[in-house]
């Protein structure tokens, strides 16, 4: 407890953070308790009492599994038979037990059982993995009060509502708790909610005063209380309840006392809390909605193909039944004579009775439906699932998408969308943490009108190219930057003039001292001193604030301690020239808000007793608060701030002033009075008081921090643009920052026209001041509509001149643009632009924009983000990509695929996406081809035999065709085939356009494969039937029977479909050779072994190969010529198509095979085949600049306001 006592003595001041935002008046809270939705009753420290047992609240066991022992079979079977194809095969399996069946029941049921069993096995494996994760979480340990002031460890799953728990530092909260006390005297604690909302900054919670004294284990020996609160709900940011403790007095509870499950205790030794929601009732579980079911466009088209084949199956069954009925009715004429007397129609069953021909035709129709079931590939879906799982494994194991620094590989969290990665038309991307690192670095500053810091940002490099400055100016700075790049996180600043204490030699050293002191004092960061006291680290509410404190430390002003009412720093004394410790008494914190855009602290220097107001904020509000005497450096500082903003840096202006005692006393009284007011306009009154004192400031300077672009982002965007993919940026940042990042990424470029739709118009500002909300809304909407219409006009003009146009819109305007009566016009404008940047976007707006693009374009959309505010966007898009960066795991857990860096998107789409799209497309086309070949040979034989319902092949030939003899080669095609290598995929991004325009799975290509299958079946059947029907097949002169004809045709089919896939494959591996030729060998081994079985088992296959087929030369000759004749049409078509109408990948084959893959001229010729021009990215910028080489560069910006 010594450490806890030390922390209590050094407790943090409640004034550091205003806790009032989470408090409600007692009347407001208590008026809700007991009403609808507020009926929960919790008996603290007595979870097993009789009253608690009657309530039967949920336990703390959680489960994310899809099935359990009781529900697995019915649920899984339901999932399998939601597919129409499986229902059809089930009906065929049931009918196979009737006399209608053309084959044995076992040969029909076994393949269905195998296919369904494999799929259900996959479901079991996935659910078992989820079960293992649940077991790990449920078996975590937590300390629970057992009585007598003793806390023992129990498993999370055994925790009950009402139990008092003790959670230590860096542990997760096991359930939703009400904070009772902590290791700090003021009962505050710091919580990290990264797992809930993605935010890395710490949030402070504070217990009620009445329970804050319960700071030892023994204090809970006699603790009893009752909590009445709201019922379980999904709202993470609100809570209403009351605590009845000591003399039945009711104390209101709010969000400030609520600790949510899966958040982590930080910077606090321990806390005590009572469980109010457990297990499924916790807010995090209430928020965990099932991810939307996503299916790829290819899979949906495959379903349509299955329906089409089923319709064709019904049609040919109907046609066959009609002919069967007509021919059967003619077997006995009116005079009683028999046409086909050898069939004995006068003595037959109802299935062939001429006198009941209509009934016989109906029964034949059912038989035909079963017989032609082989048109539909029973193993298609399970084969696709197997292939997709294997493709996902390759994605996961790709070392080129492994982020070594963070030890984070790519993770395909679902395999359903692999091929969709090759068809992305639009990417909707977050900015902070996705395009940028979400790691702020202090890089430059302006002090006393002098600019310090010589680092070069990514944006500055882009701007230099944009302004066409000499390269030497950039490279010189870049060299210095790289040579002296700091290794301290958050600090990438170098300038010898003020580093290492050299600032004391600068002309305005007193201003520099005040500037650095302000950075070290004006904040709410928490210092953490390592045990060896050699290093101080900081926990701050934002990365910006942490960067300021680190910069102050690195420049000689080290913030190292925060006590109950003071801030301590080590700084260089100007008089003595030595480092001294100085304490500043912290009197007030004037918090930052989006409306104030600034943050201030009031401190007293304990050495000289001066009262100081230290303030930092946005330049838009700070310059207007300067005194006449404090504007000495204003002009130069404004100039520097403008330059920093152009370089994509986040700026903050720093100023201060001294306060008089009377002035401060008057402010403090007014400030406290405003804080204690309980009314709707309380916050406005507080801001009014703060506003009165934050005036007449003296300017010190400005800071500039960089939210750095991730490595490889510009190159990645350039490649994606060349591939024909459009990129929309949806960010919560302000417009200026987003535009600057756009230049750095080459989404914007010199000479590109910009349509800027902003809500900050003079008319709107005037209406806001007037306070007419309805008029403001109506005028703002009308203004947005007008700007959109003017933008559409500009788009039409730009099309005539082939100029690229960019759209930039702020969040307020976007809200109106997404309304039902405006969104069509907005989309028409946006889709005509080369790039779109939406600024100040809320999470809901991101999701709505994604939905709009997905629905209106009809193309594949991909959303990529890293934070909790991106979850809606990720789930709304066809594909959601989560960045496993610094913003927690909520985006990753809601994504379909997780990668560590934005640059990996290039390889994920252009390589794996293209390969998966091509493989799945080719695989499905081939699947239908081979089944059409097989099915039409059955149909031709049926027609040849007067639609008798007799199968051409043995029962087990039929059953094993899709399962063994032809399935493995197609799986190998789906897993291993490559039309071009990964290197060439990246070198020729336009290859990706094959997927965007769906060239490989278009209806034209599908019907082409279907026609090829029909041609192959026709060649096989008629070649076989004409070659053997009148020929002596054995030495005794016997002609073939149907069992020999069936074996011969089957052999030809196996050869043809396997040789066809060999012709289709672009990239052979030994596995493909094994499966293709092994499938043919397997057929010969099977027919040989199966023929040796008892005739009762092998039936028509008995010794057919050994005694009839193998000894006959004609069998081998028929096989050879049938295979050649079946493949010649495809080979001829392919030769003509490749020679005169090549696709992209075939052109690249030429380039590669000719050894000219590195020849710029050949690459340019291939690029000219692009179906759409590249309008953004470095390549487009270079081409645009080349056209303007002899012209004066000008930026054409259309600022529509």
TrEMBL record:
Superkingdom assignment: Eukaryota
Name recorded for this polypeptide: Uncharacterized protein
Species per Swiss-Prot/TrEMBL record: Melastoma candidum
